[in-house]
Design goal:
Distance between the termini: 12 Å
Low-confidence stretches: none
Radius of gyration: 12 Å
Number of domains: 1
Largest sheet: none
Bound molecules: zinc ion
Number of strands: 0
Strand content: under 5%
Mean pLDDT: 94
Helix content: over 70%
Shape: elongated
């Protein structure tokens, strides 16, 4: 279970990083329309993952 959460967290992190790398708005101000859901997903999974670490 922890592995799959970690895997999803890593996948979301990769997706965001890869998008951000080629997207100027995401780098200099705020996430664009494409980047926003990626960033939101990463934030959510990061919270869940850190929460999981704290509770175990
Ligand atoms: Zn973007």
């Amino acid at each position: 279970m922890a592995d799959s959460l970690h895997t999803r967290y890593m996948a979301a992190s990769d997706a965001w990083r890869i998008h951000r790398k080629g997207c100027e708005p995401c780098q200099i101000k705020q996430p664009c329309e494409t980047g926003a859901p990626l960033f939101e997903r990463l934030t959510r999974l990061q919270d869940a993952y850190l929460n999981h670490l704290r509770n175990h």
